[in-house]
Amino acid sequence: MGGMSFLATLPAQAPSPDHGPGLGPIGSMTDRCPAVAAIAQPARDTMGLPVAEGWLTALERGCGMPVRAFPLGHAEVTTGVGYVCRLLEAGQGPQPGCAQTHLGVREAARACGGIHRNRCSLGFWLVALPVHAGEPTPWGLIECGPLVDARQTEADFAGRLVRLGLGQPEFLAALEAWRELPRRSTEGLDGVLDLLRHVAVVIGEEVRQRQLRAIPREPAAVAAAKRHVATHLAAPLSLARVAATVGLSADHFSRVFKRTTGVGFGSYVNACRIAHARELLASKAQRVIEVAYACGFESVSHFNRVFRQEVGTAPTEYRRTIQTRA
């Protein structure tokens, strides 16, 4: 579903958290479990995105679904959004490696360019997906979890807590929190993922609009250069060649492009080529060598090197990951 077609179906304002199905499990849990109430809601920067913030809050309060969005490079890199995660991290006893698990899910989502989900040591589903704002590199990530699999029993969860060696207060608080979490069937989890994809579109569009308002109007030469790159990815795209195409000297074009976009022209071209390569690798129709040449790389070794720098994994491994998820 395209971003604009979906946005056209949404209300102009963010949904009010007071409308819909009510407070749901989060509200009841914090009312009945004071030990959890102080950390039930994740500390989240509003990001200056009121529409996005409204949707995230509605998901949390209406669906009992801990969720947040944050830009890449955000300083907060500890545990995830869930109140069970935060409850255990706040304790003084053993911890189930929450931070490492959440970071792994985030990095996997960045690497594959889409939704990634995995289970943590407590049996919860953790989910992350990138947010794009009109550029090849994601603006940030949405993270969701913990989500309880409907097949997990209380005995299973309690057994996992026992293996952590928690003290009785932490054990009882975590167990009470688990009892209040909504259960997700396989179909229910798929519905959550669809909803998160739609919210990612909303956030990406709001970020893009904010970025457009914050920067000066793009010079015509830069806009023309971007169009030329987009339609000639397989062709040579040296700075001098593109500068001549838009009617500027190479030095002047280089300065104007970087001042306008914040990145050098060569880095921009590589990012565009890798974004296109990701799309092609998602299909079995072309071999890696064919993808490399279709995206303008002179050799497979050069393609592999740039792809690994941009994505964090080799093209063959990226394709294997995508096809496994499909």
Describe the structure.
This protein has 326 residues and is an alpha+beta fold. The chain has 2 domains: 3-212, no CATH class; 220-325, Arc Repressor Mutant, subunit A (Orthogonal Bundle), CATH 1.10.10.60. It is built from 16 helices and 5 strands. The chain has helices at 3-7, 24-32, 34-37, 50-63, 83-90, 98-112, 154-164, 168-180, 186-214, 220-231, 239-245, 250-261, 265-281, 288-294, 300-311, 315-325, and strands at residues 67-71, 116-119, 125-131, 140-149, 183-184. Strand 2 (116-119) and strand 3 (125-131) form a beta hairpin. Helix 5 packs antiparallel against helix 8, helix 7 (154-164) packs antiparallel against helix 8 (168-180) and helix 11 (239-245) packs across helix 12 (250-261). The longest helix is centred in the middle third of the chain and has 29 residues, at 186-214.
Supply the key terms.
single chain; 326 residues; alpha+beta; Arc Repressor Mutant, subunit A; 2 domains; five-stranded mixed sheet; 16 helices; 5 strands; 57% helix; disordered N terminus
